[in-house]
């Protein structure tokens, strides 16, 4: 019997060393820069402190990945908001999960 799992989950690739700087440049160019740049810098500072304590780059990688996804999703969110938040064609969460007790 092996102590190793029979399936290994693939870890996401680490962001490039310059990914945080490139991301910050993109955030500064975005129309949401007034709110997003301070939020990213706050998240980055916390992750940097966590990394110092754990000797792991994972918190920094997580911040970069999260903000990359957030920036990538922004156009879809803008489109949704610009259409008046039209939810036709979507299924209500209650229909999937059932009524809450």
Describe this structure in words.
This protein is mostly helical and 101 residues long. 62% of the residues lie in helices and 0% in strands. The protein has four helices and no strands. The termini are far apart. The model has no long low-confidence stretch (mean pLDDT 84).
Strand content: under 5%
Please provide the count of β strands. Answer: 0
Mean pLDDT across residues: 84
Largest sheet: number of strands, sense, barrel closure:
none
The percent range for helix content is: 55-70%
**Rounded radius of gyration (Å):** 19 Å
* Low-confidence region ranges: none
- Overall body shape: flat
**Category from helices, strands and their pairing:** mainly alpha
Terminal CA distance reads 44 Å
Specify the number of helices.
4
Element-level helix/strand string: HHHH
Short description:
The chain has helices at 19-29, 33-54, 58-82, 93-97. The protein has four helices and no strands.
List the helices and strands and how they pair.
Elements: H1 19-29, H2 33-54, H3 58-82, H4 93-97
Helix pairs in contact: 1-2, 1-3, 2-3
Keyphrases for this structure?
mainly alpha, 101 residues
């Amino acid at each position: 019997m092996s102590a190793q799992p029979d399936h290994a989950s693939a870890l996401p690739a680490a962001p490039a060393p310059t990914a945080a700087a490139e991301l910050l440049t993109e955030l500064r160019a975005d129309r949401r820069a007034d709110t997003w740049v301070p939020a990213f810098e706050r998240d980055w500072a916390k992750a940097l402190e966590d990394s110092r304590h754990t000797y792991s780059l994972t918190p920094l990688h997580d911040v970069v990945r999260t903000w990359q996804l957030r920036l990538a999703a922004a156009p879809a969110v803008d489109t949704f908001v610009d259409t008046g938040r039209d939810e036709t064609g979507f299924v209500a969460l209650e229909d999937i999960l059932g009524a809450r007790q």
